[in-house]
Amino acid sequence: MSTFTEPEERVELRKQVAKLAGKYGREYFTEKARAGEKTTELWLEIGKNGYLGINIPEEYGGGGGGIGDIAAVCEELAAQGCPLLLMVVSPAICGTVIAKYGTEEQKQRWLPGICDGTGTMAFAITEPDAGTNSHNITTTARRDGDGWILNGRKIWISGVDEASNVLVVGRTEDAKTGKLKPCLFVVPTDAPGFEFTPIAMEMVAPENQFQVFIDDVRLPADALVGDEDGGLAQLFAGLNPERIMGASFSTGLARFALEKATAYAKERTVFKAPIGSHQAIAHPLAMSYIEIEMARLMTQKAAALYDAGDEMAAGEAANMAKYAAAEAACDVVDRAVQTHGGYGASQEYGMAALLVATRVGRIAPVSREMILNFVSMHSLGLPKSY
Ligand SMILES: Cc1cc2nc3c(=O)[nH]c(=O)nc-3n(C[C@H](O)[C@H](O)[C@H](O)COP(=O)(O)OP(=O)(O)OC[C@H]3O[C@@H](n4cnc5c(N)ncnc54)[C@H](O)[C@@H]3O)c2cc1C
């Protein structure tokens, strides 16, 4: 008989990751972020413990698990106040795409570093002029003898400064117009002609976002991952995991905020009883508890469908999970700020710092509007609106 609970090993994994992340904690994380430093020790420690590559096949240094496992790691880190944005891109998007479509040699070259954290890979699809409309990307690869020459511009690319390589989504010169037939290239961050500059953000996070300039970057033939005519399937192999990870990032942060707000509501007394005895404080937190649990359940469903190989059903569930999780996270952080009164805006209690981090969940990796477009069209059969 199947149940709605996660397998015992997954529950144990959550406990172990929470314990590890708890050693670092929110204070460590925000101190690093505010000082403009990285959380490399934590990244390498989760790598050393096998959590970073838990979804990657064992023969390449991974744990042989699924997206459900790496999503659990991502959620538990965030629930301890240590959300690691690059988990979404390095193991979940890049690791999945390379494990599925890479050659044996490419897997041996890149996957072990993704697993132990010494060869982090960023992911670049978004372009300044294309934005949400990925069909309009113009990063273009031209054949050059045996290899390629790549040109283009990317924006909002996370963690380029911490990455050894970037998995860049482009198109070949022959497929320059019309429906996107994406091609995926692994580009070393120190390649001549590859430049990146940070974008000043209001988010309290150790990871930076970058604008990337790719000017005549020469790549060997085997920089291309998968087939040049492979089409959208190769890209989507990474995008459903991205949405599931985005959802887990949000539910983890949401749990962190709810726990802090609940603890504060129990202890802070200004009239006769703790503020949590007032329904005006208690009910919004109770609503958040329900919303977060619903989003977690949908995230687990999406991961289970993805790991079972049902990509179509996983696509719908991953979109819905990402939507529900971002909404739940934005709402609970707003309520947590309110619960803390003046301290809600303080650095000491750290709630306001979560406002931007959770708000980004409504925009990236796919915006709430595009999810609503997807559900309107694919789930409800309504006409395409764009
Ligand atoms: C912190 C952060 C990290 C990121 N990391 C990465 C990364 O590592 N790699 C990467 O490739 N990208 C990354 N992104 C980019 C992210 O995926 C995009 O910002 C996102 O997809 C939205 O694209 P855009 O910013 O160009 O918005 P736009 O496409 O300009 O859209 C602006 C607004 O218009 C709405 N809109 C557009 N078209 C429609 C429509 N047809 N119907 C209804 N509404 C519409 C959008 O929903 C949005 O609200 C990151 C972004 C952020 C903020």
TrEMBL record:
The keyword Flavoprotein applies. InterPro entries: Acyl-CoA_dehydrogenase, Acyl-CoA_Oxase/DH_mid-dom, Acyl-CoA_Oxase/DH_mid-dom_sf, AcylCo_DH-like_C, AcylCo_DH/oxidase_C, AcylCoA_DH/ox_N, AcylCoA_DH/ox_N_sf, AcylCoA_DH/oxidase_NM_dom_sf. One of its GO terms (molecular function) is acyl-CoA dehydrogenase activity. Residues 8-117 form the Acyl-CoA dehydrogenase/oxidase N-terminal domain. Keywords: FAD, Flavoprotein, Oxidoreductase. Pfam families: Acyl-CoA_dh_1 (PF00441), Acyl-CoA_dh_M (PF02770), Acyl-CoA_dh_N (PF02771). Residues 122-203 form the Acyl-CoA oxidase/dehydrogenase middle domain. GO terms for biological process: fatty acid beta-oxidation using acyl-CoA dehydrogenase. Its cofactor is FAD. The keyword Oxidoreductase applies. GO terms for cellular component: cytoplasm. Residues 230-377 form the Acyl-CoA dehydrogenase/oxidase C-terminal domain. Belongs to the acyl-CoA dehydrogenase family. This is Unannotated protein. It comes from freshwater metagenome. The lineage of its organism: unclassified sequences, metagenomes, ecological metagenomes.
